[in-house]
Design a protein that fits this description.
Blueprint: H1 14-22, H2 31-39, E1 44-47, H3 56-64, E2 68-72, H4 76-87, E3 96-99, H5 105-116, E4 122-125, H6 127-130, H7 133-140, E5 144-149, H8 169-176, E6 181-185, H9 190-199, E7 206-209, E8 217-223, H10 227-236, E9 242-246, H11 250-262, E10 267-270, H12 276-287, E11 293-296, E12 309-314, H13 321-328, E13 338-344, H14 346-356, H15 361-379, H16 384-391, H17 406-409, E14 414-416, H18 418-430, H19 437-445, H20 450-455, H21 471-483, E15 487-490, E16 496-499, H22 501-508, E17 514-516, H23 542-559, H24 563-566, H25 569-578, H26 583-586, H27 594-615, H28 629-643, H29 648-654, H30 659-671, H31 679-685, H32 688-700, H33 706-712, H34 719-734
């Protein structure tokens, strides 16, 4: 226990203080015990899930004690959010300040003046700021009540957000003042907890560990197929509700935010590449509910106090289970609805593994071990809540999940698997409990890997004893016996499997053991962001197609134009996947722009609307428009160059495209309903008589097929000439 001034040892009525300062009548969970322990001058270690109220554990003591509490915080945006929240419960803005690189010299002077005057009770600092000699000298000269380390998992190399500068905190604290330390985190496995305490030289700390179970959160993993469409469809069912979408890269964040915007969803991007003003603006707009969705890298959300985030979506699987737990923990902090959807593909894991290359060997091994855990979580069929809680050293009875994860909501088939469990446990013992899961799976399935050969494990009697099953199956068995406590995974040796006492007992006296069939995530795609509106998510409707062809034929006779002038075949087919029932939706169909939709679309959407109602068809509501800035910019540039009457070959060279690709682009523009005048170019390659001959052909043709046109003229005109004349015809007749 630290020496505490007598005036600080007075007895506090903490509930009264809580009510006076914050207006709350009762503490949450362990808050009161944590605060009392800190006020008594004890080192304190707090593990409390996101939304559990960690910040109160240092905010209230800071307001009650003499001097200034120094709070180490990892992010500038997080500091701003915390300072604003404290100022909101005080009469003076001086009650809380932050000290970081975003401040001017004048602002820094004001912060120090308020601390010297005894006005500031909480000072938030970045670890980098704390290492500066002038700041250490200043803090040494003032009264510090205690040190708090928020997001303390940043100290541990085994934590999901390790920061080397955090490991210097203890030596800096000792230079400043001998006062209590409180370390707080939402995510700490037993290994990480010990690492933090040892580094801070506070193994004597009183530990307060709340349950990691967030019983209002629903967990689901989906295969990464048509993920953009799935996300848009999902968000549209959550109209008016706030959500966060996490992506691994800044580029993906930008693309995803733009795709949501063009599909009518109020979304903004947030990542470290944006300037500080833009980041702060986007964060505030989300907090003030001016924007529904934030698409972000992990730079967003740490400590953000928005209680009513209703869903957290992971477009990409995170690099550790700690990251996943913390990020999903930003949903439902008020105890209300919170859905956590993650899209999983092993390709993402392979990308993350590549990021580890070039790092120190120990860092690579830790990174790979963390990735192994997140893969196990994603692919398991065990209750997801049970899996997460087991990872953080907490036992959980899966029947208490109450179908609040996909595996409990839609349970997989279970089969008696005692023989396989015995086979696995015996293999671990035969290999002297010195191997990782990958090696053991290869050993059981009889896969003669380089490691198997070098250890000569292929000469053991048990080699290949489980060859009727593949390594995917044996991985599943390993996950399930670990969660059930028969096997432990040694963290220090990067995942070596060892038998627990229960496992040894099971080997001596096998009991019934039901194995759950695992998920198959092998069929996933790369999810290209620039999804064409013609992406086929459903089943082609041949009945509707025949009706649309008949309607087109009828209209072509009325208007005295060929059927393909109205809508080309690919457009009709796309209508049979997407079922557009408004003119606005029709513009999302392949080859249909605003002009063509306005001119010809009404009878088609009317027919489709009646057809959908009569047949009770569930339409895909998530059409993604291929209209990101880089694509539309090139389209505008192409039209401008044509208006300037530049030769098509020159236009192609300026954009790095062949003549054929330029014609492809022009055809796409014209077929969507935009008029393009390339007469200046055609006049240079075809005389007027030839142009009229080809034009008249298309006017009477039943089809716009180029092969038919080529055969009609016995090859007198090249494919390029026919394509250019078809463009001229379609532009003038259809648009």
């Amino acid at each position: 226990m630290f020496e505490v001034e007598e005036k600080q040892m007075k007895s506090y009525n903490l509930k009264v203080a809580l009510n006076d300062y914050f207006g709350f009548e009762n503490f949450k969970g362990n808050q009161e015990a944590v605060i009392a322990n800190l006020l008594a001058g004890n080192n304190t270690f707090v593990i409390m899930p996101t939304g559990g109220g960690k910040s109160m554990c240092y905010q209230l003591p800071a307001l009650l004690l003499e001097g200034t509490a120094v709070v180490v915080s990892p992010l500038i945006a997080l500091m701003k959010n915390q300072v604003d929240s404290i100022r909101n419960v005080s009469e003076s803005d001086a009650v809380a300040h932050f000290l970081n690189s975003s401040l001017t010299k004048g602002e820094i002077s004001q912060v120090k003046a308020d601390i010297n005057d005894g006005k500031t009770k909480l000072l938030f600092v970045a670890p980098e700021s704390l290492t500066k000699k002038e700041n250490i000298d200043f803090l040494t000269s003032v009264s510090v009540s205690f040190f708090a380390i928020d997001e303390a998992h940043c100290i541990s190399e085994w934590g999901h957000d390790f920061r080397p500068e955090y490991r210097r905190l203890r030596e800096i604290f000792e230079k400043i003042s001998q006062v209590p330390i409180i370390a707080l985190t939402a995510t700490a496995t037993p290994k990480v907890q010990y690492d933090i305490q040892k580094n801070l030289n506070m193994l004597d700390a009183v530990v307060f560990k709340s349950s990691f179970n967030r019983d209002n959160l629903y967990y689901e993993i989906r295969p990464k197929r048509d993920v953009v469409k799935q996300i848009i469809r999902y968000i549209k069912t959550k109209e008016g509700k706030s959500g966060i979408i996490y992506c691994l890269s800044r580029k993906k964040v930008e693309e995803m935010a733009e795709l949501l915007q063009v599909n009518g969803i109020n979304a903004l991007a947030y990542h470290a590449g944006l300037d500080a003003t833009t980041r702060a603006k986007h964060q505030d707009m989300f907090l003030m509910e001016e924007v529904q969705v934030i698409v972000a890298t992990i730079a967003f959300g740490m400590g953000i106090d928005k209680p009513d985030v209703r869903y957290v979506i992971h477009h990409d699987i995170p690099k550790s289970l700690e990251s996943y737990y913390q990020e999903t923990g930003r949903a439902g902090r008020d105890g209300g609805e919170g859905e956590c959807i993650a899209f999983y593909s092993y390709k993402d894991i392979e990308k993350l593994e590549k990021f580890l290359q070039g790092k120190a060997v120990s860092e690579q091994e830790i990174g790979k071990q963390l990735l192994t855990e997140i893969v196990s979580y994603a692919e398991t069929s065990v209750c997801r809540r049970k899996f997460i809680l087991h990872y953080f050293g907490e036992s959980f009875e899966e029947s208490n999940c109450n179908a609040f994860c996909d595996n409990c909501k839609h349970p997989r088939e279970r089969k008696e698997g005692t023989a396989y469990v015995v086979m696995l446990l015996k293999a671990i013992a035969d290999l002297q409990e010195m191997q990782k899961a990958k090696h053991i799976c290869a050993y059981l399935s009889g896969n003669l890997t380089a490691d198997i050969k070098s250890y000569r494990h292929d000469s053991l009697e048990g080699f290949g004893c489980g060859q009727d099953k593949d390594e995917h199956f044996w991985n599943a068995v390993i996950r399930q016996v670990i969660v059930n406590g028969l096997v432990t995974k040694e963290i220090d040796t990067y995942g070596t499997l060892k038998l627990s006492d229960s496992g040894r007992q099971f080997l001596r006296n096998p009991q019934p053991f039901m194995l759950i069939q695992e998920h198959d995530f092998s069929n996933t795609d790369d999810d290209e962001m620039l999804v064409n509106a013609g992406g086929k998510g459903g089943v082609f409707d041949e009945t509707l197609y025949d009706m649309l062809v008949d309607l087109r034929k009828s209209l072509s006779k009325q208007m005295n134009v060929p059927p393909f002038v109205i809508f080309q075949e690919p457009s009709l087919k796309d209508m049979c996947f997407q079922y557009p029932i408004t003119i606005d939706e029709l513009t999302n169909i392949q080859g249909v722009g605003i002009g063509k939709a306005s001119r010809y679309g009404e009878p088609f959407v009317d027919l489709i609307r009646i057809y959908v109602e009569d047949n009770d068809i569930e339409r895909p509501q998530d059409v993604v428009v291929k209209s990101l800035v880089n694509k539309s910019g090139l389209k505008v540039q192409l039209i401008q160059n044509i208006d300037r009457k530049l030769p098509l070959e020159d236009i192609g060279r300026s954009q790095g495209k062949s003549m054929g690709e330029v014609i492809d682009e022009i055809e796409a523009i014209v077929s969507s309903g935009t008029r393009v005048n390339i007469n200046y170019y055609i006049d240079d390659i075809l005389d007027q008589e030839n142009q009229e001959e080809i034009y008249d052909y298309f006017k009477d043709a039943e089809t716009d097929d180029l092969t038919a046109a080529y055969n009609e003229f016995d090859g007198d005109y090249s494919e390029e000439e026919l394509r250019l004349m078809r463009i001229k015809f379609m532009s003038e007749m259809a648009n």
